[in-house]
Amino acid sequence: DQKRQYFYQKFHETVREKLKQNEEDNNNKQNLEVEYFHLLKSIYAPLDSDTSLENGYYYPVRLGDSYGLLLEVAAPDKQLPEHFAELRTKVQQKLGENIATLGQTWMLSAYLPNFSEKTSEEIAKECYQAVFPNVEKIEFDSKGEFIGATIFENSNTRLKQEIVKIGDKEIFTVVQNQHIIIAIYPDQESFNKLAQFYTDWMRLFYYHHKIIWAYGQSRILINKIKEKFSQIQTITESIEENITQKNGKINNLQKFSDILSQVQVIIHQYTSNFNNLKFQQGTIEINLNNYNKRLETLKQKAKKKVTYNRNNINFLEDLSKLVKEKYILQITKNLETSELGLRLLEDNINAIRSQIEIEKAKSDRDFKELIAVVGTGVAVAGLTGDNATTECKSIFGDKFFLCQNTLIYKLILVLIASFLAWFFRRYILKRP
User: Fold this and answer.
1) What Cα–Cα distance (Å) separates residue 226 from each residue in 55, 212, 313, 347, 364?
2) Where are the domains of the chain?
3) Which of 84, 101, 87 shows the shortest CA–CA distance to 47?
4) What is the pTM of this model?
5) Cβ burial, residue 234 (10 Å; 0-12/13-18/19+)
6) How far is the C-alpha of 228 from the C-alpha of 272, rounded, in Å?
7) Do the beta carbons of residue 34 and residue 62 sit within 8 Å?
8) pLDDT at residue 425 tops 60
């Protein structure tokens, strides 16, 4: 519900009310697990309540468990590339501080005049410079063709962290740093066919960003796993060191046992992060499969719709290679080392528990032996009865100082008898 409310903030009040009115129907569709459906009955809504769709529109959809928005803004015919700067300002004004939580793609489209001295790439760079004026040097990563247009891609797959406020909560999300597609069409006729493929592009870009988002989550999770591993290792090493240094007093042993119980909470957090890492790997694999299928669908649709123009968007397969050769391989290695780390931690904790139990048993045995020894001494001293003074004088003489105080004499007897009992139990009884 919070995600939906956050998504609704992207729209002006009129559109927001329409979205809320359609919520019941949309919820029924969600229950049927529809992969892609429109959130508005009218499908599109103008950017401003008093303007037509031709000046720009919202196209909100539900994509599986996420929301997607195409925000279309257009310039009057025959404008220069510099006009894209005004369009970006318009987009930013509409979105405000509402950050995309999965990612966003800028798709700039234009068509050439009848006579143009500039190449498609030169015009594409001018469009890019207009939208992102702070870029010093513009280099496109890839180039292709689509229904007659020359397409350029700038895909910076480095990750950036964003703070998103949803309701009363602030969450951290990791998204792609930048993804830009620029399409330069040869004429207005081919340019007008662009809208027929918006749905396909939206689905493709959704899978694109879901993959990179899941990879970003995996980087956060592996850092948390490393942090928990280090935290647990520090605690267990400290306990081992104390036990090794013979600090195994019964109260210390109980304290160590309590600390290990607290460590189990951290182990649970470690395991939870580990399982989430597995989940993100599955998310990447599922969305990679969907991405490849959608890309193939887009190719086939373009071939059927426009038979007289070449289509070559194989450069979009570069993401698949990146995912297979880096993302999945890296997460697989992370899972292997994390699982090994978990086993090592659990084995170490179990060994420490055993050591603590042994030390406790030893302390209990020593305590029982002390009671037995002291009891023997007390029993021997008790045999003297009320004639302790007489017995002392008969043994040591009348003037011996211990015979003047019965209590001290009995204590001496207890100590001597206890020592003899301890010596006998320790060395005589244990002799083979």
Assistant:
1) 51, 21, 40, 18, 38
2) 1-72, 75-192, 217-362, 383-428
3) 87
4) 0.78
5) exposed
6) 11
7) yes
8) no
